[in-house]
Structures are given as C-alpha cells and as structure tokens.
Design goal:
Blueprint lengths: L22 E3 L17 E6 L5 H8 L1 H10 L8 H4 L2 E7 L2 E8 L18 E3 L2 H6 L6 E8 L2 E4 L7 E4 L3 H14 L2 E3 L10 E4 L3 E5 L3 E5 L2 E9 L2 H10 L12 E4 L2
Antiparallel strand pairs: 1-8, 2-4, 2-5, 3-4, 6-13, 6-14, 7-8, 9-13, 10-13, 11-12
Helix pairs in contact: 1-2
C-alpha cells in the first residue's frame, strides 16, 4: 500500500508499450535556470479521484484536459503555471487513484465538479519550512515521475524530444538530473530504499497548435543524499525534467 508520499513496495516492472511513440515537441521550461525567488509556502493538495465520474475519466484519457483541470484550481491566482510552480502527478494504488498537486499557492478545490473527488481533499502546507531546514548530507527517500528524454536537432525550429527507452539510459538521465539538483542517488546496498524505475501508463492528449502529445513517463523511487540544500529545495519546487505541464517533474520526499 502506498503512503501519502506515493512510496510503494518494490514490485515487478510493467512491460513498456510495444509501440509507444517517443517523439514529443521539444519546447519546455526544463532548460530554464533555477530562479531563487522568494517563496513563502509550498502546498501539496491530494485529491482522491472518483474513477466512475465521467469528467475524471475524460481528464485521465487526455493530458491536456487534466492540465486544464489542474490550472483551473488556481483561477484566483491569475498567473501561469511556471510562476505558480504548479506540478502534479497521478498516484495509483489499486482502485485508489490520487491526483497530487504541488504549488506555491493554495488550490481552490471548491471549483471541482460535484463528486469529482471520492473523498475530502487534503492540503499540506508545511513543505517549504522542511525543505529549508534540510542539512547537507541528509538522506531522504524519494518518488519522482518524470520523462527521461533527450533533444534531437536542438539547433532547429523542428527539434524534438526523444524518450530514452532503456533502463540504463534512464538511470543515467536521473543521475545527471539529481546532480544538477544538488543531490545524488544512492545506488549501493546501503540505501534504505533500493533504486527502482518503472514505466508509467502512456500519456496522450492534444497540445494546442502542436498536434498530438504521446509519451511514456517513468516512476523513479529510491534514496538520495542532499549535497547542496539551498539548490535542492528550489529544484524540488520547480520540478525535474520536461513535460511538467502533463504530470511530470513532481518529486516527493520521505524523511524530512
């Protein structure tokens, strides 16, 4: 059973879709530098989805629809996703599916359709003080849903992002990203939670003006050690990897 951080016992890897497309339009805010701007809070909003609700079903089948749903929860803030630091992911635990949202403003869950949520939503606003208090060399368990990828023809207007489809390439991608985030992954037997990666369900949708979105995210779990606490905290808030608008980039931590 998963806890509120999305950590689940290690299990057999799911096979990747045989014909999962790997080409995705490249523009994304992942290439932007981390901006050390003032942050007063980081909020986790947990929404247990009512899988029988037709709008939940529609949102789960179309990542653009889910993106709009999440953004509507911040209608009162009136700022784009990157400014609000909005990240989300879907955690699946048997018949219980949870939409987890991270942001620097409180989500307005009252705008959700009636019975969209199967239970009262939960909001946790104590994340930022804990991130600020992390000491150097602190060991933490982590869960990250991300899209490991590389850009092709990066100097042209038609550059695309190609998904990395082997465990070895995805592991190296994560190692590099974690290093850039001011931490490193523990890969030896000393890790309290052994490193693992598993394919997530295929993400599909229609991106306005860019055609069809199709990519396969990966769920990484394991243990990390914080090397640069200040940098680490801001990267956790900003997210890791591309496709942050479509359920990727949110890393949760256990042991803060």
């Amino acid at each position: 059973m998963a806890n509120e951080h999305g950590i689940v016992p290690r299990r057999k890897k799911l096979p990747r879709p045989e014909e999962a497309p790997k080409l995705v339009i490249a523009p994304d805010d992942d290439a932007l530098p981390v901006v050390f701007e003032p942050i007063t809070q980081v909020v986790h909003t947990l929404i247990t989805l009512n899988l029988a609700h037709p709008e939940v079903q529609r949102d789960l089948l179309d990542c653009q629809s889910m993106h709009r749903r999440v953004m509507h929860l911040f209608h009162h803030v009136n700022a784009e996703r990157t400014i609000n630091k909005i990240l989300y992911r879907i955690d699946r635990n048997g018949a219980v599916w949870t939409l987890m949202i991270q942001s620097i403003h409180q989500a307005d869950v009252t705008v959700l359709p009636a019975e969209y949520a199967a239970a009262d939503s939960k909001q946790i606003a104590t994340i930022w003080p804990k991130l600020q208090a992390i000491p150097k060399k602190k060991q933490l368990l982590f869960v990250l849903v991300a899209f490991p990828a590389k850009k092709v023809d990066i100097n042209t207007k038609n550059s695309v992002r190609v998904g990395l489809d082997s465990d070895e390439l995805q592991q190296q991608w994560l190692i590099d990203k974690m290093r850039d985030a001011g931490c490193h992954v523990v890969l030896d037997d000393s890790a309290p939670l052994s490193f693992d990666l598993q394919a997530e369900p295929l993400v599909v949708g229609n991106r306005s003006g860019s055609g069809v979105i199709r990519f396969v995210p990966t769920r990484f779990t394991g243990t990390l050690v914080v090397d640069d606490p200040a940098l680490f905290g801001y990267v956790v808030v900003n997210g890791i990897g591309p496709e942050k608008a479509y359920g990727c980039g949110l890393m949760t931590l256990h042991g803060l």
